[in-house]
Amino acid sequence: MPRKRSKTEPRRVTRESIDPRRRPKEAPDALYDPANPGHRWERPLQAPGRMQVDFEERVDFRRLHEYRLARTRQALKKSKLGALLVFDQYNIRYISSTVIGEWARDKLTRWCLLTGNGEPWVWDFGSAARHHKLYAPWLPKNHCLAGLAGLRGAVSPKVGLFEAAAKEVKDILVREGVADMPLGVDVVEPPFLFALQKLGIEVRDGQQVMLDAREIKSHDEITLLNMAAAMGDGVYQDIYERLKPGVRENEIVAMATMRLYEMGSDCVEAINAIAGERCSPHPHNFTDRIIRPGDQAYFDIIQTYMGYKTCYYRTFTVGSATPAQHDAYKKAREWMDRAIDLLKPGVSTDVVAKAFPKSTEIGFETEMAAFGLNFCHGLGLGLHERPLISRVNSFKDPYELKAGMVFAVETFCPATDGVSAARIEEEVVLTPGGAKVITLFPAQELPIANKY
C-alpha cells in the first residue's frame, strides 16, 4: 500500500516544473525606507579593505546613492522651496552621485537641479554628460545634459550662455509643476543668478537645506569616513618614522601625498606641515624649512576617499621635548578630552563650545582672531559641514547634537617658549552612547619622533 505523503513533506520539484520567468514577489515598498541611515551601533565601526568582495558586505554604493537622494528629498520637502539648483561640487555629488574630478571643484561650471516632483538633472562638460549616460544608470539618460555657463568669468556674459541655461532650468520647473515656488541655490556666478531672476524665479538660500540633508551620515558614509581615517593612521606612522633633523617640511608633504594616493585617495587636498619657530602662530601651510633637533612639528592630513574627507592633526617633537612643549601638549589634550566627554546626542552645541578655552587663554584678543584653533566641524563630502561648534557662533545659534553626526574636534595651545605649539585633532562618530574616536594614531601623550 503506498505511503501517504505527510502534509509537511517538501514538494517535489522536477526540472520540467521550473519556470525561470516566475519570480518571488518583492517586499512591499513600505518596508524599505531609503532615508533610513541603517546604523549598526551594536557592532564595531567598520573599516574594510578597498576592494569589493562577494563574501562580505562592505560599502553598498547603490544604497549610498539612494540614501543621499532620499535625505535631500526630505530636506526639500521640509523647506518652502520647490526645487534646488546646486553648483557646489559636494551638493552635486550628494544629489546625483556624479563627479568628474577635483579640478572641477572651483569652476562653477557643473550644476544639478532637483525638484520636489522629479529626478536629478545634471549639466556637465559635454563628454562627461555622455559618460554619465553610459555609466550612471541611476540617472535618466535624458537628464544628463551638456552645459557651460561662465567658467568663473572666462566666458563673457555677453555670449548669452547664462540666459540660455536659466531658460533650461525654468522650462523644467514649469514642466515639473514648481515654477511658482522659490528656487534654492547654493553658490552661483552672479550673472546666472541675475538671469534666473530676470525670468521671474524667486531665488533663496538653498545651502542650508543641503546642509540639513547632509548632517546625518548613513552606515555606508560612516564606513567610508572610517576607511579614510585609517589611511591617515598609516601615514602618521610613516611621518613618525621619517621625522628627523635634516628633513624638510615639504619632503614630509611629498611622502604623505604619495602614500595617500598609493592607498587609494581620490584627492590630497592639503597636507599642513609646520615646525620649529613657525608653530606659533599657526600659519596653516607648509614650506621648505629644515627640521632641527628639539623642534615641535605638527601636521594636518586633508584628503578624500570616495569623496569623504579627513581632517586629522597630530603633533610631534623631534629627538627630545622641553617642559614647555610637554605642558602645551597636556593642555591641548585636556581641552580635547573635555570637549569629547560632552559629545552626546541631545547635548546643545553651546554647552560644548564652553569646553574650549577663551581666545585670551591662547594669546588672541578676540574669538574671531582665534577661530579655527579650538572648535568642532562636521565632516562628510565637505570639509566643513554640520555641526560647527565654536565660541564665535554656537552661543548665538545653538542646536542639538544627533546620533549619526561625524565631525572633527580640534585644539591648539601655544607653548610658553614663544615658538612651539601643540595641535591635536580627533575625528569622531556620534553614537547613541557618545563620541567614538576614529583617528587612532596615539595622541594621549606627546609623541617624540626618533628619540635620542
Task: Give a description of the structure.
- By secondary structure, the chain is of the alpha+beta class.
- It has 2 domains: 61-214, Creatine Amidinohydrolase, Chain A, domain 1 (3-Layer(aba) Sandwich), CATH 3.40.350; 219-449, Creatinase/methionine aminopeptidase superfamily (Creatine Amidinohydrolase, Alpha-Beta Complex), CATH 3.90.230.
- The chain has helices at residues 61-78, 89-96, 126-135, 161-175, 190-198, 207-214, 219-242, 249-263, 323-342, 349-353, and strands at 83-86, 111-115, 121-124, 144-146, 183-185, 203-205, 267-275, 296-305, 308-309, 312-318, 375-378, 385-389, 406-414, 421-431, 434-437, 448-449.
- It has a 6-stranded mixed β-sheet with strand order 4-3-2-1-5-6, sandwiched between helices.
- Strand 11 and strand 12 form a beta hairpin.
- Helix 1 (61-78) packs across helix 6 and helix 7 (219-242) crosses helix 8 (249-263).
- The longest helix is centred in the middle third of the chain and has 24 residues, at 219-242.
- The protein is globular.
- The N and C termini lie far apart (93 Å).
